[in-house]
């Protein structure tokens, strides 16, 4: 767990980067810090590993005050990933990943073996370990950056806009991989971004900062979207925050029935009972089958695209289990909203 | 004109000219000895200074002004000055050559250090490297191409200027230039000049080749 207690940071030029911050970042969870540039989110992150020293207040990692530890040793015990990857251009990918184990005196052979293991963990080939960073794509470089941060198996990972410089497709891939890794590794992650969608996707909790280093609200994404603390938060989350909320809810509870027989459009299946497309006389419309763990937002989108307003539901193997109607999806979407808002209200009421 | 080049060719290729204590081989060895020793001493002074300025970011003013100072420094004047102050020895020559080489080394080292990507330095610190580890494991290796360029420039300048050793009665290839001038022997003057130029060019090519080999994995 990371605890900020009345932390203040004023830079020598007089600007206040972080203003009276008290915040807890739970163990094994992803806390995302968001806000526009100059809001103090990066400074907050950098104070955890003493890349920036607080002017006043205390920061504890695992119960220990960070300023009472040797800065270099503290940093070796905390993974650190930055936007431009910050890889060492004169060292091979493998040696880049082995940095912290080597600093800890693990010996070259052991450090390299660990690095080779991590290449696989982050989805890179063993062969890429012999390359130099500039020979990799931006996305691959970020993977190496993550691997380097994980090399000494630190309990805490600091990620400062790690996916900010890669294209949207690669960014989505990297986000998926991070979620997959996090399921396995259960790190305490502090993640800085200015991208609300990224925050909603990755965060267990989201902390929104306003210019001047003020923390405005810190809550789980659903609560934040359903009940923003003020107009600033609402504006920051954007006009479609209702839809973003649906991206957090799964399709599992929406009832399904058998696929309709007859009618203008029929759902065509292949030999293995996997949906192929919707067919009518002389026309075909592609179908995007959805699984139970897909989001309500995806369901809503697919129900709009479907000529019958029905979505095709499949199991993990892609075999058709049934269909759900646009109405059912709508009803559930509305219910999800109401639940999120009332739940948040009760919680806030209880806290007050 | 043709006669002159023919005589120059004979002078450079005749076996007797290469042999003995006044021969080209010996003078060349002397010249290289002066140049390498001066550059070595200059490196011992300039490299730590440049690294220190680059690493701490303090004293950049010094580094920048040292460059213009170095360019404006009258080498012969310095030789005479130290000679008058300290008497006849190789010391004035070495002082002048070192003073000539130090600015090129300091400024290039400093330039190399400042060219290191701040993100890379930030990452190095963030992984838990101590100041000296950042310096020796990250900054120095990344600044090395520019540092080597500085050493190369310094060495070339020193080789070209080491002729002044002969001005205060010592050896080196400058011997031919100064003796030739005194004896109004144009072939000898030219021969000395051509040899100095050839040594400078050869060293430059060898060192830039070495640089290309060492840094073949680098992008820039």
User: What separation lies between the terminal Cα atoms of chain B?
Assistant: 45 Å
Low-confidence stretches of chain A: none
Element order, helices and strands of chain A? EEEHEEHEHHHHEHEHEEHHHEEEHEEH
Number of helices of chain A: 13
- Give average pLDDT of chain B, whole number: 89
Side-by-side strand order of the widest sheet of chain A: 6-7-8-3-9-10
Structural commentary:
The complex is a heterodimer of chains A (352) and B (220). With 352 residues, chain A is an alpha/beta fold. Chain A contains 13 helices and 15 strands. Chain A is globular. The two termini of chain A are 24 Å apart. By secondary structure, chain B is an all-alpha fold. In chain B, helix 5 crosses helix 6 and helix 8 packs antiparallel against helix 11. The model of chain B has no long low-confidence stretch (mean pLDDT 89). At the A-B interface, helix 2 and helix 4 of A face helix 7 and helix 8 of B.
Quick overview of this protein structure:
The complex is a heterodimer of chains A (352) and B (220). Chain A is α/β, with parallel strands linked by helices and 352 residues long. Chain A has helices spanning 41-48, 71-76, 93-97, 99-103, 108-121, 138-150, 168-185, 196-202, 221-226, 231-237, 241-246, 296-305, 326-351, and strands at residues 2-10, 16-25, 30-34, 56-61, 64-65, 78-82, 156-160, 188-192, 205-210, 214-219, 266-269, 275-280, 283-286, 310-314, 320-325.
Write the layout of secondary structure elements.
The complex is a heterodimer of chains A (352) and B (220).
Chain A lengths: L1 E9 L5 E10 L4 E5 L6 H8 L7 E6 L2 E2 L5 H6 L1 E5 L10 H5 L1 H5 L4 H14 L16 H13 L5 E5 L7 H18 L2 E5 L3 H7 L2 E6 L3 E6 L1 H6 L4 H7 L3 H6 L19 E4 L5 E6 L2 E4 L9 H10 L4 E5 L5 E6 H26 L1
Parallel strand pairs in A: 3-8, 3-9, 6-7, 7-8
Antiparallel strand pairs in A: 1-2, 1-4, 4-5, 9-10, 11-12, 12-13, 14-15
Chain B lengths: L1 H12 L1 H4 L5 H33 L3 H13 L2 H12 L4 H24 L3 H9 L4 H31 L2 H4 L6 H9 L3 H29 L6
Descriptive keywords:
A: 352 residues; alpha/beta; 6-stranded mixed sheet; 4-stranded antiparallel sheet; B: 220 residues; mainly alpha; 11 helices; 0% strand; elongated
